[in-house]
């Protein structure tokens, strides 16, 4: 799993934690390693939620980030306009094309990229009415990064590879998108880049830590990769929509030459001789990490899901603390009963006296009843 660098350092610097979570202490890279140690289930996540946050500022801050970000995403979802009044496609009847539980992957990844010192802006290609842009603008604001929002703001272009989509589908006009980001996001963090990618991305000259694409089409993905991939920072990552777990991924972590973004990436990376690994995330999104051929992606959906859902209960941490205290109380009750039994049964005067002293301190020794 990926973790913020300062959390890994915290584990490495504590001999007991280093031994207990040796898989975490062995992580030397953000994205991918040639033979990552698999750590058992969610033991480190449990540790962070139960104890770690009381011991480490880095853990506290990360859990708070996940909980508050996910909560904001859900509130945006709650109030964002839901209906596309100019729908042209059965899939654009809704004005929202992504989901909070899906975008938390981007948020956690960006937090980790930031902690590992990966420089650069975030770009969203494919904005529609601006739902995902609203969510990501909060994350960029938190991390102090710019969010570039690149779209035709006229919907999809005509295409010759996928008859499912046609020109003008998923249209969000720029004024409408700007208003949505003003209402639900952090507009001051956002730069707009208007136009179809075959022209608007030419001459792009900013450095990127994350390339997030939600563009549906083979041609659009090709235009984006051609113009933007050279600007992706070392250790920067790609997340793309329309990458389906059961359709687009090989068992070796590559993308298949199927249709749309998956086909475009598989063709582009092969042509350019770029090695990479890809895994499905949730809701039809996938993560693509340029890396060495023998490396494996560290990101784990199960771990994201676990943390996301546990942090979602806003009082999760309090509930954990409560449960621990209840366990502690049970333990001490048992110990006190053992002590009383020792006091009653021992014939050794010194032991009886020592037990009596402790019971007296606890207010449990009463002369008349002899305990
Ligand atoms: C599925 S929608 C994006 C949904 C959005 N991310 C959300 O959360 O609701 C696809 C978007 O990609 C844009 N798009 C696709 N291909 C494009 C291209 N070649 N140039 C510019 N915009 C493009 C469309 O205009 C549309 O806004």
TrEMBL record:
This is Macrocin-O-methyltransferase (TylF). GO terms for molecular function: methyltransferase activity. Keywords: Methyltransferase, Transferase. InterPro entries: SAM-dependent_MTases_sf, TylF_MeTrfase. It comes from Candidatus Electrothrix aarhusensis. Transmembrane segments: none annotated. One of its GO terms (biological process) is methylation.
